[in-house]
Amino acid sequence: MTVIAMTREMGTLGKDVAAELAEALHMEVVHQELVEHHLAERLQLGESTVHRFLEGNASLWERWKIGSDRMSRYTAEEILELANKGNVLIRGWGAAQLLRDVSHVLCVRVCAPMSFRVSVMLERLGLSDERSMRHEIERNDNGHSRVIQRQFNADWRRPENYDIVLNTGFVSVASCVSVIQQLASSPAYKETPSSRGNLIDKVIEAEVRKILDAFAPDTPYGSGIDISVSKGKVVLSGVVGGTGSINGAIGRIQKIDGVTDIEDNVAFVPVNSGV
Q: What is the pLDDT of residue 211?
């Protein structure tokens, strides 16, 4: 099943490329509002709160209530579930960064010169103030950079993080769609047992993190646990402050679809032990 991860950049016509490409390939487009809606449901928060957090405009109270790590995990889980279903084009939200090492996922960046982007947005919004529009685009780009850095520790502007970068300032939307369509249908981006297994491992890891988050209140310093998954085998390691255990969490992890084995290397030490 085809999966395309595309960056979102204001004024590049990336939205048009995504829409025409999805129509040509009969794919579902997952956009910003849909992801925010699902995240709000998962976090039991208002969509406006989630939007402000993801755009870097949340209040101190909102940032404390949600937490960057928690948001990162829920965002990753949402993206991975979408990719696992297949036949989807995910526009934005760090999907290209998260799915970069899954070989059947085609990672695309659509970009354009600033002057082109300003012109597109002025026409689209019926405005004429070029200076203000440029400022708004730069603000949007910087906010997007903060989100991707915080959520995935990655720089979305680096071209080497994508399979292909297309400049709509010089290449038409139709040509972009044609090129991406050719790549998506090439053998290099066909799903294989290995690439499918890699994606499933990522889905399992996200599920494990969610389970461990639920057990974090029992460990004073949070879960403090490193997770690796390979071919369904889950390896847990780390040193956690407290005197409890994660046997309850392991019991739930064993029930995750695709888990073949669990290796528990987690050590608990008393909080006042000085370790």
A: 86
